[in-house]
Amino acid sequence: MVGYRHFDTATIYGTEAALGEALAEAFKSGLVRREEVFITSKLWNSEHEPEDVLSTVKKSLSLLQLEYIDLYLIHWPLKFKKGLEFQVKEDDFLPLDIKATWQALESCVQVGLVHAIGVSNFTVEKLTSLLDYAKIVPSVNQVERHPVWQQKKLKPFCDAKGILVSGWSPLGSPGSFYGTKDVITNPIVESIAKKHGKTPAQVALRWGVQTGAIVLPRSFNPKRVAENFEIFSWELSEDDMNEISRIEQRRTVLAEMFCNPTSGPYKTVQELWDGDL
């Protein structure tokens, strides 16, 4: 057993039922107690109607076989027609009312179904708008973050507002349809890894943790799963951190499929990311 205790899932991933079965078995066997694990799930774009939020949370709880979810996020600042997943057409977008969605999530906190709420893929501008009316400040903003996309604008803003940054694709998600090898093959990352006798993946994850963020690595390889956990007994030096800060920046996931020129809230990727590319 490596020691991971944070499980990140979402309605759209289709993994809540399998995770629920694994958790139930672990609790029953005494391997871990409920309070020793942290479960994150997310509200998909087709479930933004306030009356759908509560039922979606309850469905996730049923699949996860839990009484509460530790952290629940708005997956994207987008709204689709009911029942849609990724393959959306131009007329499948609906007007977005994040305020109404957020207020419904705040109600879920009030009744104890979720312990904390947050967002995912929100920019500084979108967070600023949310903070204008939020009674509960988002606990987390889960975004793409790694040495090749360090979120140099967003991370300081979230720090100042008391919002934790959680980095998806902290290794660039090589092998996925949206991923890149540019993180683990970056010459600076490779050089630092060689100096410390570590893997490039370990350097990227250590950088994420050392900059005060949450990292969410994913691997199906047992050896790499174990390696990804071995980042706590050593540190990157100030020179290492400075070198990484000089890496040329490029957002990997532009999410062009969520933009269109005639409908929906974002006509271009520049609008989706508020120019932070």
Give a quick rundown of the structure.
The chain is of the alpha/beta class and 277 residues long. The chain has ten helices and seven strands. 36% of the residues lie in helices and 11% in strands.
Key traits:
single chain; 277 residues; alpha/beta; seven-stranded parallel beta sheet; 10 helices; globular
Give the topology, please:
Elements: E1 6-8, H1 16-29, E2 38-43, H2 50-64, E3 71-74, H3 98-110, E4 117-120, H4 124-131, E5 140-144, H5 154-161, E6 164-168, H6 187-196, H7 200-210, E7 214-216, H8 222-229, H9 238-245, H10 269-272
Parallel strand pairs: 1-2, 2-3, 3-4, 4-5, 5-6, 6-7
Helix pairs in contact: 1-2, 2-3, 6-7
Structure write-up:
By secondary structure, the chain is an alpha/beta fold. Helix content is about 35%, strand content about 10%. The chain is built from ten helices and seven strands. The chain has helices at about 15-30, 50-65, 100-110, 125-130, 155-160, 185-195, 200-210, 220-230, 240-245, 270, and strands at about 5-10, 40-45, 70-75, 115-120, 140-145, 165-170, 215. The protein has a seven-stranded parallel β-sheet with strand order 1-2-3-4-5-6-7. α4 links the parallel β4 (about 115-120) and β5. The longest helix has 15 residues, at about 50-65.
